[in-house]
Design a protein that fits this description.
By secondary structure, the protein is mostly helical. Helices cover about 35% and strands about 5% of the residues. Strands 1-2 form a two-stranded parallel ribbon. The longest helix is centred in the N-terminal third of the chain and has 23 residues. It is globular, with a radius of gyration of 17 Å.
C-alpha cells in the first residue's frame, strides 16, 4: 500500500505522510471486506475503482485471507497492467493531462 500511495502522488508526498495514508487505505479495504462478508449469504458484488478491487492489496486480498474466493475484475485501458486482477475488461484509452503535473513545482520564469 505504501508503494501505491507514494506512486499515486507522483513521489511528491512527504515521506512522513506515506505510512499514515497507507494505513487509512488499508482500513478502507478492511471495512469494505467486512461489509461484503456480512452479506455473503445473499450474494454480493463490489463495484469500486480498480484500486479497491486489486487482488494483491485490496478488498479481495482481505477476503482471500479468510478462505473466500472472490473474483477481481479490472476495467483497464490497453496499456494498463492486468496482473493484479483475475480478469480484465479492456476499455478504450482516454486522453487526459499528465496526472503528475499538479505535483510538479512550477518552473520559475527566466530573466
Amino acid at each position: 500500500q505504501e508503494t501505491e500511495v507514494r506512486d499515486s502522488h507522483c513521489g511528491a508526498l512527504p515521506e512522513a505522510m506515506v505510512s499514515p495514508m497507507a494505513k487509512a487505505q488499508v482500513a478502507r479495504e478492511v471495512v469494505m471486506a467486512e461489509t461484503m462478508r456480512s452479506h455473503l449469504s445473499d450474494g454480493v458484488v463490489l463495484i469500486a475503482g480498480n484500486g479497491h478491487v486489486r487482488k494483491d492489496i485490496a478488498v479481495p486480498y482481505w477476503l482471500r485471507r479468510d478462505g473466500l474466493a472472490p473474483r477481481a475484475v479490472g476495467f483497464l485501458e490497453p496499456a494498463s497492467d492486468a496482473s493484479v486482477f483475475d480478469a480484465v475488461e479492456r476499455i478504450p484509452a482516454t486522453e487526459r493531462p499528465d496526472p503528475c503535473a499538479g505535483f510538479k513545482a512550477p518552473t520559475p520564469p527566466k530573466g
